[in-house]
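Quick question: what would this complex look like in 3D?
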Amino acid sequence: MQPRIILRKEHRISRKQISPNVLRTLYRLRDNGFIAYLVGGCVRDLLLERTPKDFDIATDAAPGQIKRLFRNCRLIGRRFRLAHLHFQDEILEVSTFRAAAPSDETDTEEPSPDSRPPRHLKDEDGMVLRDNVFGTPEEDALRRDFTINALAYNIADFSVIDYTTGLSDLQARLIRPIGAPSVRFTEDPVRMLRAVRFAASHNFVIEPATWEVLCELSSSISRASPARLYEEVLKLFLLGSARPVFGLLHTSGLLAALFPALSHWLSEDSRHLAIVQANLEDLDRQCQSGTPPSPAFFFAAFFGPSLEEAALARSRDGITRREALDAVCAEAMKNFCKTVSIPGRVGNQLRDILARQPSLHRRPPRRPSLMVTKPWFAEALAYLHLGVEARGEHGAALKWWDTFLAGGTPAIGSEPPNGEAPAKKRRRKRRRRRRPAAPARRMTSDA
Ligand code: ATP
Ligand code: MG
């Protein structure tokens, strides 16, 4: 197929938008007779006048040739070798053009005569297990996920190359897979999450026929590896569009497949949905103000209200609130990890944020000056904030802390604005000091 070439004067990409290291790398490849393209999301974002998150370079130079050209090059990956160029403040990825697995190829592929594993491999359902073969620039474009992610910027003449309908989809703000959506989502279910992410973060629409297929195949997301899903979940929720991402995940069925227990809790009461939505809006505000929350804080904002409710119900069965919360968190983490492997460290931080809430709710808190020095304090207080904003709970406690942190003297036990009863001052029972027991007299026969 003939690509559409958009000449330098017909598009808006300027070299000023491209980092100097990237430009130097492209020029050196070109000056040594190789094809050198910027590819993937960075071309999409440059055309949209957004700052790209990262720059990817594709070339017809083989990994060994790249290594010989750049002293700062390290080759990574065993079967498909990628070049990483190490600069002082960034690492650039340079890959040799690759081809995708043919769509009718499965793991029935004959092993090669020298008994090396096959370069392409799919399981019996069509999910790609291995995809390792060099290709042409066109094949490299067509193996990519969406048309808007398959554009290339050619350093030889500064033109943009479009092998699919990337440019028109970009103009129409459409997310469209390259090829049949059912095949592309089956080959790699994570592409469904990527579709949702780009739609939400770029304010694009998932093309209607694609959306239908995505909803049908949503439950197959659990076939992707839990470690990869964890990384994708962070990208979905920590980049400033958690609220629209959540909407798309929820309506498509992806949320139910990723986090069944949360999805069930959301369906129980419309207030639950409102709480989670409000929390995610707050996270987005944090991202937009330049202070992205930690993964643990995101999970607290997302799962906290449901876990706290479960812990409260359990503590009524006679175990302490802390014990109940520990048990509920441990069970939830075990369940999450079946689909999304949240690291244990993050799970512990999430539990800590929730477990510290009662000590923040006390008025006055015990030893507040010491509390503020603790590593968990900032996030626990931020969670208290969320509760006040989303549920109107513990407003008086937050007011106490705000005054305290501003250097004022909080009115201890003052009537809170939302009419909550001030915490009762607990009286300590005085215990009578026991007299030391008199040593027992030895009753011996010789006494
Ligand atoms: P971001 O702004 O998040 O970096 P991106 O599109 O650049 O978006 P990357 O994960 O950096 O996303 O991937 C770079 C490129 O690699 C994509 O634009 C796409 O062309 C290709 N790609 C990434 N993941 C897949 C996938 N699962 N299937 C096919 N192509 C993919
Ligand atoms: Mg990228």
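Answer marked as accepted. Confidence is low (pLDDT under 50) at residues 105-112, 414-427, 434-447.
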